[in-house]
């Protein structure tokens, strides 16, 4: 029996969630590798700008804090590096549950702005993974407590401690799936 994985969504925008209108943190962008026109190519640790199939694109996640950069750590001599990306969203809701399932079950890549550059967690042959406990939800003891879903993504081994990606001249929002779908009439 085939299982259909849920599609990611542009998450915590004004149409979907009123709890996070303050925009407390940075955004990350999630893409499905299956929706790329072709696998990204790299020169050393710099990947080309992603190009998507018609009507497809990135999914934007507005995070609850400003700590969403992708970091690399050594796996030991001649073993490469492991990339990690930790981010959290500031709500627990059915939409958040759909996002968590989509991110956990699809073959994704993650883009995070890092000042004037854009880091990427991507490899054409390996999957971004969320280990057991890599996606956790804290609903708090009382309704007034913080409600948070935290994601901890890993990709290894890769050849460099930091991977970068060429940003579109019009910014990452120009590659959103919601914009691509509306411009292609889907």
What report would you give on this structure?
- The chain is mainly beta and 186 residues long.
- It contains two helices and eleven strands; from the N terminus they run ββββββαβββββα.
- The chain has helices spanning 94-105, 177-183; strands spanning 27-32, 42-43, 46-47, 59-62, 70-74, 81-89, 108-114, 117-121, 135-138, 148-158, 164-165.
- The chain has a four-stranded antiparallel sheet with strand order 4-1-7-8, with no helix packed on it.
- The protein is globular.
- The model is unreliable at 12-24 (pLDDT under 50).
Topology:
Blueprint: E1 27-32, E2 42-43, E3 46-47, E4 59-62, E5 70-74, E6 81-89, H1 94-105, E7 108-114, E8 117-121, E9 135-138, E10 148-158, E11 164-165, H2 177-183
Parallel strand pairs: 3-11
Antiparallel strand pairs: 1-4, 1-7, 2-3, 5-6, 6-10, 7-8, 9-10
Q: Poorly predicted ranges (pLDDT <50, ≥5 residues)?
A: 12-24
**What quaternary form is this?**
single chain
The pLDDT mean sits at: 82
Helix content: 10-25%
Structural class: mainly beta
Gyration radius, rounded: 16 Å
The fraction of residues assigned to DSSP E strands is 25-35%
As laid out across the biggest beta sheet, the strand order is: 4-1-7-8
Please give the largest β-sheet.
4 strands, antiparallel
Number of helices: 2
Straight-line N-to-C gap: 28 Å
Number of strands: 11
Q: What letter string, H or E per element, gives the SSE order?
A: EEEEEEHEEEEEH
Overall geometry: globular
Which features would summarize this protein structure in a list?
186 residues; mainly beta; four-stranded antiparallel sheet; 2 helices; 10% helix; 31% strand; globular
